[in-house]
Design goal:
eight-stranded mixed β-sheet, 10 strands, two-stranded antiparallel ribbon, Spore Coat Polysaccharide Biosynthesis Protein SpsA, Chain A
């Protein structure tokens, strides 16, 4: 069985960042700095280090500031494709759908990253992941942090589910996944 290498990613960056106000009144949430650089730059550099150089970013709130700061991505050794949403963000599914329909995301699996997560995850662990024929996504789950004790998903028969079967534990979605374009 051969595996296909994932060559593209999408960073979800359209939200208003209301929980970070007043920081995000004039700064897009992905540009909030952590350890000396914007959150989104950490992701771009990590994706580039994993060999992903084709990155789509959806933007809405203060999109011009985000695009002006990051440009075409060449300063990071990547090509950024901008999927700009109108006045209100389209939410996750709508943002992905728009990027696929516009051709900014190719019709093949991609790594999906929430721009507002802080991680040192090595994305190269996902570049050779092959989704099964009936698998639409591969979600990275973590142990539940204090702010989300109830978790998001349980693992039932190897698949993520919002509803645990029996006494299955629930885990928290890490904001990183591999997605099929046919979800």
């Amino acid at each position: 069985m051969s595996t296909s290498t994932i060559t593209q990613a999408m960073i979800l960056a359209a939200g208003k960042g209301t929980r970070l106000r007043p920081l995000t009144l004039e700064t897009p949430k992905p540009l909030v700095e952590v350890a000396g650089q914007p959150l989104i730059v950490w992701h771009i550099k990590a994706l580039q280090a994993a060999g992903i150089t084709d990155i789509t970013v959806n933007a809405s709130w203060l999109a011009d500031k985000l695009m002006d700061t990051l440009g075409d991505g060449s300063q990071y050794g990547v090509k950024l494709h901008w999927s700009v949403e109108d006045d209100e963000p389209l939410e996750t599914a709508g943002g992905i759908f728009q990027a696929l329909q516009s051709g900014k995301l190719k019709d093949e699996p991609f790594i999906l990253v929430n721009s507002d997560v802080w991680t040192t995850y090595d994305f190269s662990q996902l570049t050779d992941y092959t989704l099964g024929a009936d698998q639409r996504a591969h979600l990275l789950l973590i142990d539940n942090p204090e702010h989300n004790n109830g978790g998001d998903f349980a693992i039932n028969n190897g698949l993520a589910s919002e509803h645990p079967v029996g006494d299955a534990d629930k885990y928290t979605f890490a904001g990183i996944s591999v997605m099929s374009p046919n979800w």
